[in-house]
Write a structure and sequence with these properties.
cell membrane, two-stranded antiparallel ribbon, olfactory receptor activity, glycoprotein, 7tm6_olfct_rcpt, behavior, mainly alpha
């Protein structure tokens, strides 16, 4: 019998994204309404089937890249495509191996309604935007298949020339053990590639959306703490006459229960927090009151309830900040390795894309290798100009902050390896 499970906290905020990740084939077996034995087995079969099909087609694309590696431009184009979809393979395997860490995070007992709504709105907008762009990207990718010639570049070993070879008009270049040029095999390959594009991009994008949603929630919590900082400082300033008992102030008693203050207070700080019992704190004795050193009335004219609320507000801020720090730390522990590989693969892709536009030295070598000495004076002058202009390699810069080159790639790769070793040592 299926029972409706009601989730709370961050899980309920991320539930639409969690459902989409489950539909895309991630190994995410929690947060289902039905958790019987057969249902769990069927979900594992569903996710394993998607993982197998996506991995198999990725291998076929790698085989195609290796088979036609003689022509540089063809090899570069296939390599960039492989690196682009390598994000999917990494994140799918990473989530399957590290799925338990995604199920745990610091529990926020209460959240300010305004900032919680802001975070939830941003999460939903991000999820809707990524869903729409994923579908639009798939449509554009498939549409571009029907424009231009469906050929690949190959190098002739006999004449050392670059020739063109007709290939199946498919969205992706992959090697198949059957003839996919026409007929039923072409239709099968075309439909399968559309499925593969949709699910591979969804697996990668939805996991990134979860990571960004965590960060959005953490940022809005920090905005909440920033918003209450000013009134909290004003409260603290009113207590400067006395020295609080800090030993009891920060002593949490999570096992005891206490009640809300039923009466309104003179100063309105109720918007700062929802209850004075956040995170299990109990206000009793000297821990909730100022030390008056025998005086009945303090010179700041603060009542006992105001003192208690001031102490509660201070502790609320400290405990909430500790929870945010723990949340950010858990995000880094959960997603840090995947983010490391994401940045590394993106750096390699960017380097390959830019390096194709910076190979001016090959132009100079080609100009010098031709029989320029048998030509006219005008031809010799032209070859000399080409060689002079191509001595300085072309470069592509990122907003004048860095120049894309193989040296940059080597330095970034070295830095990534160093950071990875540091993370390993820290663990």
């Amino acid at each position: 019998m299926m029972t409706k499970v009601k989730y709370q906290g961050l899980v309920s905020d991320l539930l639409p994204n969690i459902k989409l990740m489950q539909a895309a084939g991630h190994f995410l077996f929690n947060y289902h309404d039905e958790n019987a034995g057969m249902s769990t087995i069927l979900r594992k079969i569903y996710s394993s089937t998607h993982a197998f099909l996506i991995s198999i087609h990725f291998v076929l694309m790698v085989i195609n890249m290796a088979k036609y590696a003689d022509e540089v431009n063809e090899l570069t184009a296939n390599t960039i495509t492989i690196l682009f979809f390598l994000h999917t393979i990494i994140k799918m395997l990473f989530f399957a191996v590290n799925s338990k860490s995604f199920y745990s995070h610091p529990l926020f007992t209460e959240s300010d309604a305004r900032y919680h709504q802001l975070a939830l709105t941003k999460m939903r907008r991000l999820l809707y935007f990524i869903c729409v762009m994923t579908v639009v990207s798939l449509i554009c990718w498939v549409t571009l298949t029907f424009f231009g010639e469906s050929v690949r570049l190959i190098s002739s070993k006999d004449t050392n020339e670059t020739l063109t070879e007709e290939i199946p008009r498919l969205p992706l270049k992959a090697w198949y053990p059957f003839d996919a040029m026409s007929g039923s095999m072409y239709i099968f390959a075309f439909v399968f590639q559309i499925y593969w594009l949709l699910f591979s991009t969804s697996i990668s994008n939805f996991m990134d959306v979860m990571f960004c949603s965590w960060l959005i929630f953490a940022c809005e919590q920090l905005q909440h703490l920033k918003g209450i900082m000013k009134p909290l400082m004003e409260l603290s300033a009113s207590l400067d006459t006395y020295r609080p008992n800090t030993a009891e102030l920060f002593r949490a008693s999570s096992t005891e229960k206490s009640e809300k203050v039923p009466d309104p207070v003179d100063i309105d700080i109720r918007g700062i927090y929802s209850t004075q019992q956040d995170f299990g704190m109990t206000l009793r004795g000297a821990g909730g009151r100022l030390q008056t050193f025998g005086e009945n009335n303090n010179p700041n004219n603060l009542t006992q309830k105001q003192e208690m609320l001031a102490r509660s507000a201070i502790k609320y801020w400290v405990e909430r900040h500790k929870h945010v720090v723990r949340l950010v730390g858990s995000i880094g522990d959960t997603y840090g390795t995947a983010l490391l590989f994401h940045m590394l693969v993106s750096t390699i892709t960017l380097t390959l894309l830019a390096y194709q536009a910076t190979k001016s030295s090959s132009v100079m070598e080609a100009a010098y290798s031709c029989q320029w000495y048998d030509g006219s004076e005008e031809a010799k002058t032209f070859v000399q100009i080409v060689c002079q202009q191509c001595q300085k390699a072309l470069s592509i810069s990122g907003a004048k902050f860095f120049t894309v080159s193989l040296d940059l790639f080597a330095s970034v790769l070295g830095a990534v390896v160093t950071y990875f070793m540091v993370l390993v040592q820290l663990k």
